[in-house]
Each structure stands twice: as C-alpha cells, then as structure tokens.
Amino acid sequence: LSTVVLYHGTFTINSLCHLIGSKRFATGDESRNNFVLALITMGEGWHNNHHYSPGACRQGLRWWEIDVTYYI
User: Fold this and answer.
1) What's the 3-state SS for the chain?
2) What does pTM read for this prediction?
3) What is the mean pLDDT of the chain?
C-alpha cells in the first residue's frame, strides 16, 4: 500500500505540476509550483523551483514554501 501511495504521489506531481499552479521562474517548460500538492507530498509540489535548480536539495526556496522533505 505504501508503495502504491508513493507512486501515485510521484505521478501526480509529474502530471499536475505541469498543468496547474504558478510559474515563478522561466524554465523553458511548463513546470509549475502548486501549494496544495506541496503540502500533500511534503514539498515536492514546488516543481517549477525544481526545474529551475534541479541539483538543489531544497525545493521550497522561499520561507513560506513548506518543504518537509528538506527539513527531515
């Protein structure tokens, strides 16, 4: 069950964060940040930030962008 939930979370980010949300950085693609998905997936919803800086460990770049994965 945990594996299925993890896969669904990952696939949701890769699908919805290219359709719904806000674009802070011009990355040459359609990646977007989505606050609701970031809360559900512990920070993975800051997808535009990830595409802007793919090698960074932290995806929540602003103080209000909650990134629990980075905190842990």
Assistant:
1) CHHHHHHHHHHHHHHHCCCCCECCCCCCCCCCECHHHHHHCCCCCEHHHHHHCCCCCCCCCCCCCCCHHHHC
2) 0.86
3) 93
Q: If we measure between CA atoms, which residue out of 22, 40, 41, 42 comes closest to residue 32? A: 22
Q: Measuring CA to CA, how many Å separate 72 from each of 17, 20, 24, 25, 43?
A: 23, 27, 25, 26, 11
Specify whether the CB–CB gap between 36 and 27 falls below 8 A. no
- Spatial CA neighbour of 29 closest among 21, 41, 37: 21
State the Cα angle at 40 between 38 and 44, rounded to 5°: 35
At 35 the pLDDT is 95
As a whole number of angstroms, the longest Cα–Cα distance in the chain is 37
pLDDT (0 to 100) of residue 6: 85
